[in-house]
C-alpha cells in the first residue's frame, strides 16, 4: 500500500507517513510527520509569526491495531515559537492528547470494550496494562455520561409526543430496588432513581425540575399503585398505560393455577405429562411449532376446565392484537371479562377483579400502542453490568455505568 493512503486508512489524514516498519509478527511501527509546516499560536491564534525551533525527540503513540498487530506511531515532538507573542509551545496533534501515549481512537475503543465486559478483559484483548485501561475508563466515563445525559434530556424535552416508560429493577432482589425512567420513542434511558417508594419518587421530582418540564403524551408502567399515583401527580394530562407484558402475566398465572388444580385430579401418567409440558399453555398457539401444537391439544383434552381457561387466555391475546381502536377495545374488554366470569375457579375470578380495577389503564393501550419491552431488555443489560462490576460501591460511578450501558448507541457519537 502507498504511504499517502496509509494516513487515511488509519483515519489520521493530518500526518504524512514516512516509513512503515514491522519489527516482529506482533508489532507495526510507523514513522510520520505533520503535513502542515506551522500551527496557530495558542495566544494570538495565528500562524504568521510562528516558526519551528527544533524537536524534543520522538513521541511513541499507541494506535488502533491493524491486521491483529499492535500499531505504534512515531511522531516528532516539535518545538514552536511565536515571534509576536514571544512564547514557545509544543506541536499539538489532533489524534492524541498532550503528554499521552495512547491515541483518542485507541482510548475510545479500549473503553468501549471494557464497558461491554471488564477492564481486565479489555486489557487482555488490547495487550495493555489493566491499570491503564481502568484509568482510561475513569477519565472517560464522567465526560461521556455528562454528554449523553445532556443530549438525551434535550431530546426528551423537545419531543412532541413523548412516551415515557417507568419500571424498577433489583439491586438485591427482595430488598433494594432502583427505578428507571426511559424515553421509549427516543430509545434512551433518561434516569436511574434510588428506591421505588412514593417518597423516593416525589423527592426526585422535587429535586429535578427538568423532569417536571417534560410533557409526555403517555406513560407506560406496570400495575404498581405507587407509580400510577406519582405519574398522575407529575403529569396529570398524560395517558397512563398498563404495560402489556405485566398485564398478560396475570392471565398466565391464572392459567397455571388452573393447571395445578387439574393435574391433581389426573392419573399419574397424565399428571406427569401435564406438569412437564406446562409451558406449552403460555404462548399463543400460532407461535408454536406443529409438533408443539399437537402436544398442546393432548394436554387440553385432559380437562374441560383447562380448555376453557386456555381459550380465555387466547381471547385476551386476540383482544390485544386485533382491537382497532379504543372504543372497540373497551367493548371487547367487557366481553372478555364476561367470558371469564363463566369459569368456575378462584384464581380466574381474582384476576378478573384486578383487571376490572385497572380497566382504564389496560384499555389505554389501544390509545397509544407502546409497551415496556425495550425496558425489560435494558434490565437484562443492567443485571449483566452489575455482575461484571460486582455492584460498584461508588454511586456516581454506578449510575454513570448504567446510563452508558443502556445508551451505548450514543457512546462516542
Automatic annotation (TrEMBL):
Species, as recorded: Paenibacillus solanacearum
Protein name per UniProt: ISL3 family transposase
Highest taxon in the source lineage: Bacteria
Domain annotation Transposase IS204/IS1001/IS1096/IS1165 zinc-finger: ranges: 39-85
Residue ranges of domain Transposase IS204/IS1001/IS1096/IS1165 DDE in the record: 164-400
InterPro entries per record: Transpos_ISL3, Transposase_DDE, Transposase_Znf
